[in-house]
Amino acid sequence: MERARAVAPHGNERRPATHPLRRGTAVGMSHAETAHPNRVFLVGPMGSGKTTLGRRVADLLGMDFHDCDDAIEACTGASINLIFDIEGEAGFRERESRKLEELAQLDNALISTGGGAVLAAANRSLLRSHGTVVWLQASVDQQIRRLELDRSRPLLQAPDRRAKLEQLAADRNPLYEEVADLVFSSGGRGVPLVAQALAELIQQHHLAENGETTE
């Protein structure tokens, strides 16, 4: 069944939310009491800003921030690179699914997922049923610029980074679109302005669902 989609502010897209609202105080917002979802998941490719933006947006919305990759490293005592080396991608994906299921039980949480978290159908179902999902988009050119000095990502250990990122985008973009409640471009502005715009978009999405306005 096709989902209804509407154009959201700043040229981004959204589909109607089906998740309950939760009241919280947003730092720096124009109105003191604002609606935000109980749980927000950020999905998107590496270099799209899921962690950098996620921390700021969580602060603006008065939510707790959690990074799935960081949580995996904390509980295993091993880096993502080392897990890939020892267990392979399949082993890492199993750990990722278990950790994502655990994080999905938290309340008042904004959760940054790994770029490949959407590969498993069970993960996609979990994301859609447990919170509002925001797809942070980034072009391959943006990824290459942002990840130029990054040597910590296993899937970027390739002779041709552009070709690898293009292949990942071709494989994963349809899956990001499948789960997304909101689609947001993370480029073109400084981090504080982008975070503010994203926080406001999330708020507007839920206020509109309740028939409220931000005026």
Explain the overall architecture:
The chain has 215 residues and is an alpha/beta fold. The chain has a single domain, classed as P-loop containing nucleotide triphosphate hydrolases (Rossmann fold, 3-Layer(aba) Sandwich), CATH 3.40.50. The chain is built from seven helices and nine strands, in the order βββββαβααβαβααβα. A seven-stranded mixed sheet has the order 1-2-9-8-5-7-6, sandwiched between helices. It starts with 5 loop residues before the first strand and ends in a 6-residue tail after the last helix.
Task: State the main characteristics.
two-stranded antiparallel sheet, 17% strand, disordered N terminus, 215 residues, alpha/beta, 9 strands, Rossmann fold, 47% helix, seven-stranded mixed sheet
Mean pLDDT: 81
Radius of gyration computed on alpha carbons: 17 Å
Q: How many beta strands in the DSSP annotation?
A: 9
- Supply the CATH superfamily name: P-loop containing nucleotide triphosphate hydrolases
- What helical percentage do the residues reach? 40-55%
Tally of DSSP helical segments: 7
Question: In terms of structural class, how would the helical and strand content be classed?
Answer: alpha/beta
The CA-CA distance between the termini, in Å, is 34 Å
**Biggest sheet statistics:** 7 strands, mixed
Order of helix and strand elements from N to C terminus: EEEEEHEHHEHEHHEH
Strand arrangement across the biggest beta sheet: 1-2-9-8-5-7-6
Q: State the domain count.
A: 1
Stretches where pLDDT is under 50 for at least 5 consecutive residues are 1-34
Query: Per the principal axes of the C-alpha atoms, what is the gross shape?
Result: globular
